Amino acid sequence: MTEDDFTIGDEVAHRTGGKKMIYTGKGMTGEAICEWFDGARRHQETFAFVALKKFEEPGQSSLSGSSTRA
User: Global pTM?
Assistant: First the structure.
């Protein structure tokens, strides 16, 4: 993904997995600034935009409107 794919406040995750983070802006070096909480402790880190994806809850799919129940 690129910088244009994100809006401040978006829920994101690293492509390799991990906790849900919030995209809070673009850093001085051109990387995405993300924040997340681990209990009461706040973390902030920068990531390359290509390393991020929009967060999806586990088990959520793009076909969330369909059902297989009868």
Answer: 0.79
Q: How many CB atoms lie within 10 A of CB 70?
A: 3
Q: Give the helix/strand (H/E) hosting 19.
A: none
User: Can you give the C-alpha Rg of the chain in angstroms?
Assistant: 14
- Whole-angstrom Cα distance, residue 45 to residue 32? 8
Following CA atoms 41, 29, 49, 32 in sequence, which dihedral angle do they give, to the nearest 10 degrees?
Answer: 30
pLDDT by position in tens, the chain (length 70): 888 999 999 999 999 988 999 999 999 999 999 999 999 999 999 999 999 999 988 876 555 555 455 4
Q: Which two tokens stand for residue 13?
A: 């995750």
Six-digit token string for 9 = 């406040």
